[in-house]
Write a structure and sequence with these properties.
The protein has 461 residues and is α/β, with parallel strands linked by helices. The chain folds into three domains: 150 residues, Rossmann fold (3-Layer(aba) Sandwich), CATH 3.40.50; 204 residues, Rossmann fold; 95 residues, ANL, C-terminal domain (GMP Synthetase, Chain A, domain 3, 2-Layer Sandwich). It is 30% helix and 28% strand. The strands form five sheets. The chain has an eight-stranded mixed β-sheet with strand order 2-1-9-8-10-11-12-13, with helices on both faces. The chain has a six-stranded mixed β-sheet with strand order 5-3-4-6-7-16, sandwiched between helices. Strands 14, 15, 17, 18 and 19 form a five-stranded antiparallel β-sheet that branches. α8 links the parallel β8 and β9. It is globular, with a radius of gyration of 23 Å.
Length: 461
């Protein structure tokens, strides 16, 4: 049962380095002791099966140990997403009935004795709630059971698909940043440890300097950060000879951009496709079919309904936490609606063709157009509001808004951008706000966002 394989790996790892933070190197044996101490402290606080634990931690060895310890005692674990708007933390803690664990809390837990620890999770219990950005009003929590987490591929070499097996050979020094609670960051971290690598904390996580400073061989990178790295290497190259793997996360990578990255950085870019609800769906090795998002492993089932992709994965979430109506729309008879349009070619490679949902992916964060449009329309000067996404070299995609003025009024684009940032967060703030006389209509008489996307945006304000 999860996280049994991680506990076994650390318990038998001895002096092998598993976490590096500046001059501090933590061995497997030391990490195992940290986990045992924290697990004892959690149990003393009556935190175990059926109890919620919310983690808001930094990037350090204790944060990793606390994450594994929370799973080991069988708690329901959620990581606090970064950049929550005011009031959402309280909402999340109340909704999950969770105890907040922060760095100072962990310091106190470390005073506990290192008692024996085993994986205490119950198969049908929710092990992890992975919260989305809250773009639809409040964060949605993807609920994954201990059985599902135990079915994941990361700590089991015999389950690694070909692209993952190749990736595993390149994870000698895996750079971690942002949050160890991130689904992707933790998953590849476990893969790195299983493959014999070391987790290396990045403070701060600036690219490309962090790669050079920490002699990193691998890390996760968003599409926007990848574009910036490519531009930086073209303009002022640094020595990235240690770099062996960049795992692109958050949004699809256009084939032309992928080819450019491979040309500038070498054969290090692993690209693929997955969702918070599903985990990894497919992955391609560097240079493998850049026009696709890779080949799904045999353990993943696919079907297509009117062009929309439905999937089943061994480690998928089972529902949205305490959200039956939204769960019913996405989790259908054991399948997950990806809300993406896709096709499978004769060679088994997956092609993404578009979206069946009105969503923009900004720095790996799902930003839904609807809440932004409704908020903009609350301004007295705005009669109608429409939001689209456009490719962006900095953020992967960026939000762009179009507003139709109310009679006799003149919308203020700068104020509208500030309105969105104050209420929904910076990732939702439109890059541009364009004032239009009327929205173009499709032949069916509906607002034509494709036509809006082809118009020139208002100058950035």
């Amino acid at each position: 049962m999860w996280p049994g394989p991680v506990l076994d790996l650390l318990a038998t790892g001895g002096d092998r380095p598993v976490f590096e933070d500046g001059d501090r190197v933590v061995t497997a044996a030391q990490m195992y002791t940290l986990i045992r101490r924290i697990a004892t402290g959690l149990r003393r606080r009556d935190l175990g099966p059926g109890r919620g634990v919310a983690l808001r931690l930094g990037i350090n060895a204790e944060a990793f140990a606390a994450t594994i310890a929370a799973f080991a005692v069988g708690a329901r674990v959620c990581g606090i997403p970064s950049g929550l708007a005011p009031g959402r933390l309280e909402y999340l803690l109340e909704r999950d009935d969770a105890v907040l664990i922060e760095d100072a809390t962990v310091a106190g837990l470390l005073n506990s004795p290192p008692s024996p620890v085993t994986a205490a999770g119950r198969a049908s219990d929710v092990a992890r709630i992975i919260y989305t950005s809250g773009s639809t009003g409040h964060p949605k929590g993807c609920a994954q059971t201990y059985a599902a987490m135990s079915a994941a591929w990361a700590p089991h070499p015999d389950r690694w698909p070909p692209a993952i097996a190749e990736l595993a050979t390149r994870l000698d020094r895996y750079l971690v940043f942002g949050s160890l609670n991130s689904q992707v960051m933790l998953e590849y971290g476990i893969l790195a440890l299983t493959a014999g690598g070391t987790l290396v904390a990045a403070h701060p996580p600036a690219f490309p300097d962090a790669f050079v400073r920490h002699r990193a061989t691998a890390s996760v990178i968003t599409v926007g950060k990848l574009h910036q790295l490519v531009r930086s290497q073209r303009a002022d190259p640094v020595d990235l000879s240690n770099l062996k793997a960049l795992m692109v996360s958050g949004s699809p990578l256009e084939p032309g951009r992928l080819r450019e990255a491979l040309d500038v950085l070498g054969p290090v870019v692993f690209h693929g496709y997955g969702q918070t609800e599903t985990g990894m769906i497919s992955m391609a090795s560097p240079g493998e079919r850049p026009d696709t998002v890779g080949r799904p492993p045999s353990v993943i089932d696919l079907k297509f309904c009117d062009g929309e992709l439905y999937v089943r994965t061994p480690a998928q979430a089972g529902s949205y936490w305490r959200d039956p109506s939204e769960s019913a729309r996405v989790f259908v008879d054991g399948w997950i609606r990806t809300r993406d349009l896709a096709a499978l070619d004769d060679d088994g490679y997956l092609h993404l063709l578009g979206r069946a949902r009105d969503v923009i992916i900004v720095q790996a964060t799902l930003v839904y157009a609807g809440p932004i449009e409704r908020l903009l329309a609350t301004d007295p000067a705005v009669a109608e509001a429409y939001v689209i996404g456009r490719p962006d070299d900095e953020t992967g995609e960026a939000v762009h808004a179009f507003v139709v003025p109310a009679t006799g009024a003149t919308p203020n684009p700068a104020q509208l951008r500030e309105l969105v940032e104050a209420n929904l967060g910076r990732s939702h703030m439109p890059r541009t706000v364009t004032v239009i006389d009327q929205v173009p209509l499709s032949p069916a008489g509906k607002p034509d966002k494709a036509a809006l996307a082809s118009t020139s945006p208002h100058p950035r304000l």
